[in-house]
Design brief:
alpha/beta; Rossmann fold; Glutathione S-transferase Yfyf (Class Pi), Chain A, domain 2; 2 domains; binds adenosine-5'-triphosphate; binds magnesium ion
Length: about 375
């Protein structure tokens, strides 16, 4: 996957700007608060429909403007892909792929794959199960339309089941729950089985990346913290039983207590929960290793690397780890943001340096 160019109009602090990216390392540099992360964010947004940091679309539109327009030209093994997105302050965002409007934002996924990492992604290791589910959902949805479909169906039925649980008439609830359960178990099983596969592939790759970055030999094990194992039929059966066993509790609390919407990822470093026992540096390296492992999974699945976006990651690593990271991403188109883009940071790796100041691309130079 390659992002060839990016165009921004009234996006965040950009009035109008065009970037063109090289195949290897692209470095967006400049002082704080100039628009480095904003440009990186736009790339990921075009690839996935998802902003890693905006909770509302209107935050993306330049202050004082009504609408933002962003687009990129990308290239995959199958040819050129043009993605255009319009974000209206008042309305839903709309997207065209190769000039054809798409109906649901989810259709974007799987066209141009991208992996995003910034210091905030530490929450993948440190914070709530929801953060880890989001990671799995975004990654798996990019890899598999079936997963995305199962997830959408699951969430819809789950919501209906939860509405039913709030119903006062217990007889109605008892009669109707089994109807939802069969459906919900079917989609839940698809989600669980794919997450299990994903995590068992991810685990050794992340361990290897972690060893390469840290130079150490700590063991890193990642697994699903759900307890559902086996093929789809077995998992569906297990979930169905668990749903039935949870009727009383579900009715009392007014929502569904079991299923993949409650699952988590277990991350163990040297056998201990990294969230609880890991040092700040270990947690950071684990989070980065997981993302690097994710890029490997994309590569083996699609026969090409995703676009890797590393926002503000270098400042958090010491010189040795920085070098190891740069060596590790060799061959992957990477967009890095950082305040210090001196040549010494990147060693022998050539890069395209783009200096950003106040929402404008001021200077471009090639460092070889
Ligand atoms: N919707 C918006 N309209 C106008 N300006 C915005 C909007 N959203 C964010 N900004 C501004 O964009 C500026 C640049 O943000 P960005 O996060 O890209 O900085 P950065 O170059 O990555 O800085 P740092 O080195 O601190 O990470 C900020 O000053 C912010 O106030
Ligand atoms: Mg930034």
């Amino acid at each position: 996957m390659l992002i060839k160019s990016l165009q921004l109009k009234n996006f965040r602090n950009y009035a109008e700007e065009t970037f063109s990216f090289d195949e290897g390392l692209n470095v967006l540099t400049g002082a704080n608060a100039q628009g480095k992360t904003n440009a990186a964010e736009a790339v990921f947004l075009l690839c996935t429909g998802y902003s890693p940091r905006a909770s509302k679309d209107l935050q993306l539109v330049k202050k004082g403007e009504e609408r933002a327009e962003i687009s990129c030209v990308a290239e995959s093994r199958y040819g050129r892909i043009d993605i255009e997105m319009v974000i209206n302050r008042a309305d839903k965002k709309s997207v065209k792929i190769n000039s054809t409007p798409i109906l649901r934002i989810g259709e974007l996924l799987g066209n141009v794959n991208s992996v995003f990492f910034n210091p905030g992604e530490l929450k993948l290791v440190k914070e709530t199960p929801e953060d880890r589910r989001r990671f799995m959902n975004i990654s798996l949805s990019q890899m598999s339309k079936n997963y995305l479909h199962a997830l959408n169906r699951y969430n819809k039925i789950l919501q209906q089941r939860n509405n039913l649980l709030k119903e006062r008439d217990r007889d109605t609830v008892y009669e109707t729950l089994p109807i939802w359960d069969a459906e919900i178990a079917k989609y839940a099983a698809k989600i669980v089985v794919r997450r299990n596969e994903f995590l068992s592939t991810l685990s050794p790759l992340a361990e290897e990346a972690h060893a390469a970055l840290s130079g150490g030999k700590e063991t890193l094990k990642i697994s699903a913290e759900s307890g559902w194992k086996g093929d789809e039929a077995e998992v569906a059966d297990g979930i169905l039983k668990a749903l039935k066993a949870s009727y009383e509790k579900d009715m009392r609390l007014g929502f569904t207590n079991v299923g993949p919407h409650r699952d988590d990822m277990k991350i163990l470093l040297n056998g201990e929960d990294v969230k609880v026992y890991g040092s700040q540096g270990q947690q950071r390296t684990v989070a980065l290793s997981i993302k690097l492992a994710e890029t490997q999974i994309f590569k083996s699945r699609f026969n090409e690397y995703p676009v890797l976006i590393l926002d503000d990651v270098l400042s958090e690593l010491d010189k040795v780890r920085r070098r190891r990271l740069i060596a590790r991403i060799n061959g992957i188109q990477t967009i890095i943001t950082c305040t210090n883009a001196e040549k010494s940071v990147f060693g022998d790796t050539p890069y395209k340096k783009m200096t950003i100041s106040d929402g404008k691309l001021k200077k471009i130079s090639l460092k070889v």
